[in-house]
Each structure stands twice: as C-alpha cells, then as structure tokens.
Amino acid sequence: MKRRNKSFVIRLIYTLCLAGATYNHARIVLEHGVPWDYGGLPLFVSTFWTALTFIDALAVVLLLAKPRYGLGLTVAIIVSDVAVNSWVGMEYGIDAAAFAAQVVFLLFVLFTVRGAWHAVER
Asked: Lower CB count within 10 Å: N or C terminus of the chain?
C-alpha cells in the first residue's frame, strides 16, 4: 500500500474514533445541557469535556479537509484527554474500560501520527 493510502487509512481510523467521541459528548450535552457539571466535577473538567463535543467534531472535519491540522489537533485532543481523565480517575474514579480504550487510542495515535504526517501532501 502506498504511503498516501496508509496515511488516509490512519486518518480514517482517527476520524471514526473521534466521530464516536463526538457522538458520546453530544449525547451527554443533549441529555444534561451545556452547563452540566458531570455529577459534581470541577469546572475545568466539565468545561473541557463539554468543549470536546465541538473540538472532536472539528478534528473530524480537519482530518479530511486539512489533514496536517487535523493530525495536530488529534494529537492535542487525545494527549490532553488522557491527562485530564487520568487526574479525574485518581481523584474521583473513572470507567476503567472507557479509559483503557482512550489509552489504546492514544498509543495508536502516538505510534502512527508521524507516518501519517509525512505522507500527507504539502
């Protein structure tokens, strides 16, 4: 498979994962509203998680329309999300299966983003 095709497949996997995350965040926002505190979590956590509704969706669009911007945003999203969720897990507890899935996605992104980046045409 050519490098450009591999990059597209990798970006497509990122897109599907981020689309699923967008769906999950949007479902929560629709159910509880934008200002929900996720059951008493600090403002920075609830604001971050609510913002991911829109940031994840933006990354999906950018991965397809402006791949390098999308790749950069994807890395920023998953690194920050795992960092925030690690803290939440230590302080409040967290769904271990969902967190494990995020860590797997983080590892996948970290191991594949360089190849996807270099294969995208300038």
From this structure: C
